[in-house]
Design brief:
107 residues; mainly alpha; two-stranded parallel ribbon; 2 strands; 4% strand
Length: 107
């Protein structure tokens, strides 16, 4: 996101969402642009995902699915954090439902 200055937020934003929200409100009150706050939230989430992904070996590339994968900005940031290319399917928000339907069809 060119021209955006990500604001540091709680590393464990979702483990303590109230603290993250209070910090965001404080930043808004001080006139911090909402795009900078959003970039900080994105970076915090990407770092958390990197920590989770470190538990498994990533070789070459990975595929990112779910609703957040519809954000090209987040997908680029995640790729930077993981250090590998991130593939996003055409309809990433539907991948889980399609997989569940395929499994259910076999039952």
């Amino acid at each position: 996101m060119p021209g955006v200055q990500p604001q540091p937020l709680a590393t464990r934003l979702f483990g303590s969402s109230q603290v993250g929200c209070q910090r965001s409100i404080g930043l808004l009150a001080r006139g911090t642009p909402p795009a900078d706050i959003a970039a900080g939230v994105f970076r915090s989430i990407a770092r958390r995902m990197r920590g989770l992904a470190a538990r498994i070996p990533l070789r070459g590339e990975c595929t990112f699915t779910g609703g957040l994968a519809t954000s090209p900005s987040f997908s680029r940031l995640l790729s930077e954090e993981l250090g590998v290319p991130v593939n996003v399917p055409e309809y990433p928000q539907l991948v889980g439902a399609i997989g569940a339907a395929l499994i259910a069809a076999r039952i």
